[in-house]
């Protein structure tokens, strides 16, 4: 990743090694994709930082799992005034996320070992999610935790257009679909101005 600072590149490398170390015990990523972790997972999540541009405030990553994309975004914004809140209900994965934030010196990361719907609404400037839930359900989580005027960045697979149509039957929102640079026919949805139909 030649377009990032040396410190960011080193953190991303160290993060990849942590995933490789922990993955046999708690299955953070599919075993078949572990050999290609930098391209398949980290570069995929890095797209968010490029799309979001300069940000400040509170970023909430829903269903963080192994830290994709939330921890990767936190690495990219490590020197910026952004507080990251990673929400992961699996206690083992939450422990992994805390270990990563400590070992990678990410002082502005907080891990919430809780269910998304049980957390107090976060009033986040940014909400992100990757491979978490179908868009109609995901919109209810985003609506709960995104503040008025905030932006959601949702990484969706090749069926994103069908999911979008289903979501529009229940929700009103503005969106832009950004083509994924790493997965053919996938998209990153930039969503705001959410209201229930």
UniProtKB/TrEMBL annotation:
Its domain of life?
Bacteria
Name the Gene Ontology molecular function terms of this record.
rRNA (guanine-N7-)-methyltransferase activity
EC code: 2.1.1.170
Q: Which UniProt keywords apply?
A: Cytoplasm, Methyltransferase, rRNA processing, S-adenosyl-L-methionine, Transferase
Give the CC-aspect GO terms.
Answer: cytosol
Query: What catalytic activity is recorded?
Result: guanosine(527) in 16S rRNA + S-adenosyl-L-methionine = N(7)-methylguanosine(527) in 16S rRNA + S-adenosyl-L-homocysteine
Record Pfam families: GidB
Report the principal subcellular site.
Answer: cytoplasm
Q: Which InterPro entries match?
A: rRNA_ssu_MeTfrase_G (IPR003682), SAM-dependent_MTases_sf (IPR029063)
Where does the record say this protein resides? Answer: Cytoplasm
In terms of Gene3D superfamilies, this protein maps to: Vaccinia Virus protein VP39
- Give the residues the record marks as binding S-adenosyl-L-methionine: 63, 68, 116-117, 130
What is the stated purpose of this protein?
Answer: Specifically methylates the N7 position of guanine in position 527 of 16S rRNA.
Q: Which family does it belong to?
A: Belongs to the methyltransferase superfamily. RNA methyltransferase RsmG family.
Looking up NCBIfam families in the UniProt record yields: rsmG_gidB
Q: What is this protein called?
A: Ribosomal RNA small subunit methyltransferase G
Q: What species is given as this protein's source?
A: Paracoccus zhejiangensis
Name the gene that codes for it.
rsmG
């Amino acid at each position: 990743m030649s377009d990032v600072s040396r410190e960011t590149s080193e953190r991303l490398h160290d993060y990849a090694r942590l995933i490789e170390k922990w993955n046999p015990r708690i299955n953070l990523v599919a075993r078949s994709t572990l050999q290609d972790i930098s391209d398949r997972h980290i570069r995929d999540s890095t797209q968010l930082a490029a799309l979001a541009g300069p940000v400040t405030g509170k970023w909430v990553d829903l269903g963080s799992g192994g830290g994709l994309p939330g921890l990767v975004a936190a690495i990219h914004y490590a020197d910026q005034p952004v507080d990251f809140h990673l929400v992961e209900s699996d206690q083992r994965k939450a422990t992994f996320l805390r270990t990563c934030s400590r070992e990678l010196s990410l002082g502005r990361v907080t891990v919430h070992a809780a269910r998304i719907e049980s957390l107090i609404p976060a009033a986040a400037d940014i909400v992100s999610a990757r491979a978490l839930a179908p868009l109609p359900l995901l919109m209810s989580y985003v609506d709960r935790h995104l503040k008025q005027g905030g932006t959601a960045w949702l990484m969706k697979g090749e069926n994103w257009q069908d999911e979008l149509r289903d979501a529009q039957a229940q929700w009103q929102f503005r969106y832009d679909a950004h083509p994924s640079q790493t997965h053919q026919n996938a998209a990153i949805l930039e969503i705001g101005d959410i209201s229930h139909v």
